[in-house]
Each structure stands twice: as structure tokens, then as C-alpha cells.
Predict the 3D structure of the following.
Amino acid sequence: MLRLLSRVLTSAHTHRNREAAAVYRSVCSAASQSASACPGFTVKPAMEPKLYQPPPEVRGMTSLDKEAFTQNITVPALRVPTRVLNKVVKSLKKSTIQRPGVSRVVQDKEESDDFRLVLLDPHRVSSTSSFSEAEAEALRSFGVAEELHYYELQLTYDNLRSEEVLEAVLPQGQDVTSAFSRVGHIAHMNLRDHQLPYKNLIGQVIMDKNPGVTCVVNKTNIIDSTYRNFKMEVLAGEENMVAKVKENGMTYEFDFSRVYWNPRLSTEHQRVVQLIKRGDTVFDVFAGVGPFAIPAARLGANVLANDLNPESYRWLQHNCKLNKVESKVRTFNLDGRAFIQGPVKQELPALLKGKANVHVVMNLPALALEFLDAFRGLLHQETPCDENLPTVYCYGFSKDDIPDTDVVKRASHSIGFPLENRCSVHFVRNVAPNKDMMCVRFTLPKEVLFSSSHEQTESSEEPAPKRQKCEETTDST
């Protein structure tokens, strides 16, 4: 959806540029026929219709040649007295040229210290009548002559935006992407097949145009492993996969190539953590490197955080120390079901007798719903407790036309109890066309949690890890 919107906006922007250029050529043509029709208008040849477009000969380029993007264009300008320069620039900020690395103020062609040229956007200003009433009044009040001058400007690769470069290079009519996920110094892309011949050029452009990015990687397959990490290849820059990021006031470090991290989930992390209070207990079944566990601990909650991936477990411990919450977080390197039927089962009886709330976070969208059966008959108690039952936050993907109903139905089937009208469903984000990430929130029913029979699931192994398939997206991790 983001890429589709980007293409629409880019197309509209290009169309507007061409229309403006056509208008400008028309004005100049009319002015050349009757100079008196535009008082103060200095006639010059029409400017290039593709003012902000790289030369056409760069199309198909697979190895970046920055010099090939250089072109000379002519732009309108105002000759402004130096003494009022700053005031004029401020008054004309909507009409001045806006290009990366291009100065709006240049030396007067007569090299006078008393005047400077203020470069204007030719798509906004084609004659002195193009100025708004407020702009025209400002120019008169500052004593600036309402006469357009012209300046030959050299545009280079450095003055072009990444989407402009890529649109010029990739085949016409095909999807152009400059979107990526930023993870510290790493830009993570999901390129399509038709973009792969240009992958190294794309990587170089992304790195050039985004300060602080020193490594660009491409996901080579969907997440399809027991440990929720994916293979990737470096398109440009250094091969340093250890990233440092900040999210919701916390700092995290991890090897991006060996753990799962999604920068687009920061809002969801914050939403859930805000529901947790000091003194509460949080069981984070699939904790990753700690985006739920660590901020919850910082708020004063007691946290038991688990992850099957040894690398995630190692970085989880590291991040607890980094954020100085190691005393509030107990970490485990277990399979999700083993964590529920082990540490969770051991801690719950005492917690249910207390007054503080208990939260169970299950953020493994591709499989978490399947783990809900681990709660069946987890505790054995003659008189089940009706108060202080745990609140579960279980995430799942859905491709159904009605995702809310779909995830509740699947959760009910897995847990063995109807959750309809006993839960709430929160839309997290769209991860791919017709694929949504949802969060089902419910109080764990006493009919499920307590049992005097041997209904407890025996298996302590994660179901079908070979089928594990986390987030498959076209524009994000």
C-alpha cells in the first residue's frame, strides 16, 4: 500500500512538473511575441520540461555513475539588496527553489557585494505575476525590483532525491521503491524480482541519500526458521549487523541478522506497556530482545521474559543490563510451551492470590494462537479463583476478509473455550496486501486455566517449527 501510494504521488508530482513547465514555455513564448505584455519580464528560452528529472540516458544503469546525472538548467531569480536578503528569503520561502544541496542564494552575476540572486522554483514562478499578493507586497516594501533574472544552475546526482534517481534508472512502468526500514545504521529493504538486477545500485543510492545509513541489506526470503531471523544480503556499505536503536525511551542492541526486530511495532509495544502498572507481573512468552519486557520493567513491573532463540536470549540479557532493569527481569531460553508449562505454571498460583495484575504477552504472530492450548488445565485447584485471572495479549496474522472474527475463532479453537464477546481485538498493522496483524486481548477463563482432570497438554515441544513463518511483507520487516 505504501509503495502504491508512493507511485501515485510520484506520478502526480511528475505530471504537475510537466504541466508547470508547459505553462512556463507558453508564457515565455507569449512574452517573446509581445514583450510589453509582461512588464519587467526578461525573456529567456524555455526551461527544460524535466527540470528535476535525471537525463534519460541513465535508464538501465546497474553500476552507479554519478557523473551521468549532471545537467544544466535555467531557473528564474530575483536580484535582492544584501541588506534585506534574509527578510526576502523568509517572505518567499514557498517560491524559492528547494533542492537537496542547492543554495537558494547565489552571487550576483555582476559580483556586487550589494546584491545577491535569490533562486526561484520555476514550477511556482513563471513571471512576476506568479507571486502571491503577500509576496508581492513584501517585495515592494523591501524595495526589490519586480524583474526576473535567470541563472544557469548545474544539477548533479547530489541534488536529486533517491526516488528520482531510481525512477530514472529502473525500467519504465515497473515498480520503483526507495522505502526501507531503518534499524540503527542499517537500511533494510524488501526488493522485488524485477529490481534485483539493480540491487547494488539501489543500495548505494539509499546509503548516499540517507545520512547515518552505512549498511543496506535486502531480505532474501521470508522469515522461515525456528529462531525468527531471516537471511539477508548486503547491497552496499559495511557488513556490520550489530545495530543500536532507541525505542520509546529504551536502548536496544542486537545482531540484526540473527534476531527478529521490527521498527514498525514501536507503537504497539508502547500501547501494551501503558496498560501495565507498577507491581504487576508480566510473562513475555516470545520476548525477542526485550521491546515489551524492558519498558514494562522500567515501569516497575516484575517480568519473566523468554525466547527460544539463543541469540535473542543473549541480547535480551544484554539489553536488560544496558537499560539497568536486570534486577526486575528474569530471563529464560525455552520453547514457548515449555515456558508456559514451567515458569508460568510455577509462579501463577501465588500471583493469583495477590492484588497485582498478571499479563501474558504472546507476540509471535504466525504461531502464537497455536500455543494457547498450553493453558488448558495448567493449574489444578479444587476451588478455582475468580479474581485476578491473567490478561492475555495474543498476536496473530489473518488473511480473512473479517480478520477480527477470524483470529477470535482460531484463538477459541486453540484454547478450547469460546472467546466471542469475552475478548477485544486490536488491529496492529497491515503487513502485506490482504494480510493483517491483530492482537486478541482476553482474561484467561477459569474454565480453561483450572482443571481437576489430566487435560494439560503433554507435549513440551514447539509445534512444527519447520512451518514457522513470521512476517512476510513487501515493504517492511
